[in-house]
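Q: Got a minute? One more chain.
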Amino acid sequence: MNSGPLHMSDHDLSANRFELLYGMLLDAIPSSVLMVDEKLHIVSVNRNFLLKSQRGEAKTVGRPLAEVFPTIILENTDIERRIREVFRSGTSVKGQRMTYRAPGVPIRIYYYSILPIPSNQVMLLMEDVTEQVRLSEEVRRVERHLASVVDSASDIVLSTDTEGRILTWNSAAEKLSGLTAHEVRGQYFFHFCGANEQQTVSTVFMRMKSGNDSHTTEFPLLTSNKDNILVSWVFSPMKDDYGQTVGAVVVGRDIAERRKLENQLRQSQKLAALGVMAGGIAHEIRNPLAVCYSAAEFLLMEDIPADFREDCSRKIQSGIQKASAIIENLLRFARPSPDTEMSQVDLSAVIRDTLELIANQAKVQQIKIQLDLEKKPVLVRGVSGLLQQVFMNIFLNAINAMPEGGLLSIIEEIFEAEVAVRISDTGVGIQESDLDKIFDPFHTSSPVGKGTGLGLSICYSIVQQHLGAIHAQSTPGEGTTLTVRLPLL
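A: Always. Here it is, folded:
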């Protein structure tokens, strides 16, 4: 039986299977693929190209390249010449950019490659990179915007690595310091701080390596002409995509003028504190003065025994010394402190000195003081006068909260890297709705004319300046506890 015309040979079946497999493979490619012969006619295309170009297979296969591709693409890309070069040289052409717009379709951006094929054809491979290009342009736009924001800021904005080496330095930093970004890049940030602050800055960077919290402090920035500019700093850890700390963002603001105003407010608050203490102080001074007055009257008498005269003289001397000590303590507290440089301070000694100033007022109001301080010196880095003002304001607030008497408790506790001072009273307490506002400037529960509302606000500012923290707990009718935390040396 002659079955030749009715049956395909194994060779034909293999060829058909190969063509089918080849077509499926091309259609599975996410890029557009065109096979072009030496006459620049399209031999075959995959489904991706037909979808992107919105052309049917019949209007594409067998047609010249110039008929399928718009003229403007052929002129701008010189793609026909490049295909001929591939046929002539047998060398691929890769990574050329092309913009293509099909009728009624937004512009698409492609990177195309031309690959020689053994069957006297070339493969034109077109990869749609429109979204990648748009995303890249958007990223560049956002980066330019962020860079412009940082560079236009009036505050110092810089970034460092985890060790504190400067990576970026904005225009405000250049203007205030007189140092260019090129001059400071790669140098340690603490080199531009005062000698007394270098240890503080190093401690801040060390804490940020293992924590997520921002840190605020104040210290001078050294300029190119060796002047100091007082700056308020905020150190924030910079994280990568995995949440790991890879550096720090440091923002600084020139606060020279603000500091002048704060010093004036602090001084006015000191005077207000002295007014509150006046009753107890007057009582304490009046006692030795009364003794002196009586002894002086006896000395004016004639024919008094020599030993009695000597005793009267000693009482006058002792009374004057006691009154003088009280006045000296008041003057030391009231006068502006010329020393604003941070140095080693014994916190326990500061607390004891401050208690001496309010002890008389506490005695007048029948307030018992319970003191539990560390036996060894508790050393912190700070300004003694400012820390004394913190505790003075807290002690006076506690006394005012106990008009009928009560207990003032001061407890000092040492932890690994900080000291906590808890000041508790048995007074009227603070309403829960007011607890979050007590550190706000001018917030006061005192009657009009009895308080400025600046005391705890100034305490908060001073403690922040010392890289510490202050917070309050209170139960109405039972009392309040204020805790001051400061880093240890």
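A: Confidence is low (pLDDT under 50) at residues 447-453.
Q: Perfect, thanks.
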